[in-house]
Design a protein that fits this description.
mainly alpha; 2 domains; two-stranded antiparallel ribbon; 15 helices; 55% helix; globular; transmembrane helix; transmembrane; Conjugal transfer protein TraX; membrane
Length: 378
């Protein structure tokens, strides 16, 4: 057999698509010798390949698979073709030594965001040990309290609170106390979820527009029930503006002016000055251990002490003129709802849950209108 044909046969019987290093300044001589036939083509070895012998072995990201040069009939080496992006299925590729398994690190996440242990328990579990059911998959995380569950609890508490306010004078005192207790969990959860929505919304403008739209829609039944004041959606809207100012205004004078304007406007709204302040405090302590407990303990004291003095006749008049059942219901029982809200918020797992965004917005004006209609016949 002629020498050129023998070389061609030897090259053709070699591995069709063995691994080959990318051309570099150091490996230029190797490729030149390979193209001249000085380095004979060797069949694939089933053992692991020693990559340290190659000058380019240290940079594994510069390697690619390309066919070996094959000599044509006249003895000249065919030019190297660029490697295709297809995977190699030859025996050598299958015989590659398995890579050592990567070291697994435990990364805690909330809603897909990796968090360190300190931030993981910032608003959750208040610095205590993370429960076992939160250590693991998203399925395990779902065993906590999702945002959907918090919203449903807030809606239920809000409905109970409004029923007690509208029909408290014709209800049994025990029933009124229970309804006010459940109503106490409403606004803290709303403030907490507003902070979560502010952090995750894709458009702060659309978020504010939705709040403003349904606040205006709910103002008519609110006025029919409780007279000239602004409903709680205006309170949330003011709180959202304060959050934006807190994060975006670098001028202290402008930020202080926004705070003063927001506090002044909140006096016309439900929850008055306490509503926007609770929202801002929740936002400021979002990464602090026991942050929720600190805020709720402070506001529990602020609400509990004046109500206690008022009911005992010190003259503040916060509950004056109301039936006795409502007075005692607004005392410790309303503040007791803060404790229930605190428990729900500290078990929040960061999951969104089912999305019923428009239902929650539409429920507020709808249930106020239903309460006003029913009150006309009671």
């Amino acid at each position: 057999m002629p020498k050129s044909r023998a070389l061609t046969a030897t090259a053709n019987t070699a591995a069709p698509c063995g691994p080959q290093r990318r051309t570099s300044a150091r490996a230029k001589g190797m490729f030149f010798r390979a193209s001249q036939g000085i380095i004979a083509a060797k069949p694939h070895s089933s053992g692991p390949r020693n990559s340290s012998s190659s000058p380019t072995a240290a940079s594994s990201d510069t390697t690619r698979a390309s066919p070996r040069p094959v000599r044509e009939k006249d003895g000249r080496a065919a030019p190297l073709q660029p490697a295709a992006n297809s995977s190699c299925t030859c025996a050598a590729a299958e015989a590659k030594p398995p890579h050592a398994p990567a070291k697994r690190t435990r990364t805690r996440t909330i809603a897909g965001r990796p968090l360190c242990r300190k931030h993981f328990i910032g608003l959750h579990y208040n610095g205590a040990a993370i429960p076992d059911f939160l250590e693991g998959s998203p399925v395990a995380l779902s065993r906590g309290t999702s945002a959907f569950t918090l919203k449903m609890a807030a809606i239920a508490g809000m409905s109970c609170n409004h029923v007690a306010n509208v029909f408290g004078d014709v209800m049994a005192p025990a029933a009124t106390m229970i309804l006010f207790t459940l109503g106490g969990l409403t606004f803290p959860i709303m403030a907490f979820l507003l902070c979560e929505g502010y952090r995750h919304t894709s458009s702060i403008r659309r978020y504010a527009a939705r709040l403003a739209l349904f606040a205006v829609a709910a103002e008519v039944p609110w006025f029919l029930l409780w007279g000239p004041s602004l409903n709680v959606l205006f309170t949330l809207l003011i709180g959202l503006g304060l959050l934006w100012a807190h994060d975006h205004l670098r001028n202290r004078g402008a930020y202080g002016l926004v705070i003063v304007a927001g506090v002044a406007a909140s006096w016309l709204c439900d929850w008055a000055i306490a509503g926007p302040l609770m929202i801002v405090f929740f936002h400021r302590v979002r990464e602090q251990p026991r942050g929720v407990l600190k805020v709720m303990a402070a506001f529990g004291a602020v609400f509990g002490i004046p109500q206690l003095i008022s009911v005992w006749g010190a003259g503040l008049g916060a509950a004056g003129g109301l039936p006795p059942a409502i007075q005692w219901g607004a005392l410790g029982y309303y503040t007791l709802g803060f404790a229930l809200a605190t428990f729900l918020m500290t078990t929040y797992n960061g999951q969104r849950g089912p999305s019923l965004k428009w239902f929650f917005y539409a429920y507020y004006p709808a249930h106020l209108l239903v309460l006003w209609i029913v009150a006309q016949f009671v």
